[in-house]
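ok trying again, last paste got cut off:
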Amino acid sequence: MFATSERVRETTEGKTDTMSDSMRAGAIWERVGRRLRAELGEDVFSSWFKSIEIDLAEHDAVRLSVPTRFLKSWIDHHYKDRIITRWSEEAERPVTIDVVVRTAASARTVTRAKPVDEAARPASPAANPQRAHDGHHLSAAQNTLGGSPLDPRLTFETFVQGRSNTLARAAALQVAQSRPTDAVLFNPLYIHAGVGLGKTHLLQAVAGTAQAGGRRVLYLTAEKFTFGFVAALKNQTAIAFKEALRNIDLLIIDDLQFLQGKQTQAEFCHTLNALIDAGRQIVVAGDRPPSDLENLDERVRSRLAGGLTVEIGALDENLRFDILKQKLAHARAQHPGFDVPAAVMTYVAKNVTQNGRDLDGAFNRLIATNRLTNQPVTVEMAERSIRDLVRIAEPKRVKIEDIQKIVAQHYNVSRSDILSSRRTATVVRPRQIAMYLAKTMTLRSLPEIGRRFGGRDHTTVLHAVRKIEGLVGQDPALSEEVEALKRRLND
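nice, full thing came through this time. structure:
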């Protein structure tokens, strides 16, 4: 009888210790997650760490679980040591960590702490398939692909409209507000723009609005699509992957320029064809028009070009000022008494010209400097705080695509000739001049220029640049030709 009571007491204490360990582990995992997000960036963190959960935490041994064998393999080979190091630092003692693949049964029976991404991020429709739709196929799509999380702040209401983005916003809103029974007007809708100009904001606004209207929506980055497809192949669930994608109402793909792999692009093309033929809506975003995505399969580019392609242009000064006004309104709600004089707003809007992310950074620095040092927000303080974000007398932004087109026109060759592997003199010289101009007139690196010139190696670009530099110094006629091309590109 005594032994039985002792066993009961030990069991009860063991449960209490386990609960305590789980609570401590959950808190540590949240701190580790914040550090990993800061170190690796939001995109990497969302791709590889969002679905990690704590299966077991006992003393100095931790077991983490992931949904697929591919994800376990990737984390084991690329991030496990980093997780162990960060966890040991936060726990202030060495720990051992094992990563396992969770099953449906274990998911029902094991009580786990929240995944770190869920603990740090407000719940969103995309992260909750049941809230988005109760259908089997949408759940399958979410489980197979792990739909990218939505930021509830990115809505049409918070998207600041200006001359450069009016058409893109109108087209996106039309798609988002359509009902499942409405005829599809713009399919696919392709939105392209440079970094930080609002592509992702619009796509997430479309996803959130459409989900609220009862449509089955799947929002994915191109990286997530690739990851889901590769995982499906490894797990031999490719058929379920295909069926899941083909049974949604609205597919949204962000950052298409990162879609890699011949087999993955072929599957993406099949998905586009199947959804479009079935009258389902597709929205895609990239950093360039479809015709300029040289590494993308020609069939995919053709399919995308057959819909509505809309560009979001650079932010003009008025739009930048309106964005800052919106940020100030949000900051006042969080920091009562905080204010930015109109002169400072005008200074920032006039001088921080690259993109919306630079505006975010500039405004955050004003808040931080004011709050941490008690300095008043003045033009002088702004000049000191954001000097590295200011582009003084910034020249016109020249695109590699524009260089290729103008050089091709000047030398009476086609742009496809310049990107091809042809080695005739009539093509080689224009190609070298175009590479030289790309290096001297843009901020692109040699590897990036090589990639944009048909996937060439950076040494090829370097050879072309040095070749033209030498010829320009020796041949006055060629020097004048190059200067004429520069003037055309800067006009």
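cool. The CA atoms of residues 176 and 219 lie 13 Å apart. Confidence is low (pLDDT under 50) at residues 1-19, 104-144.
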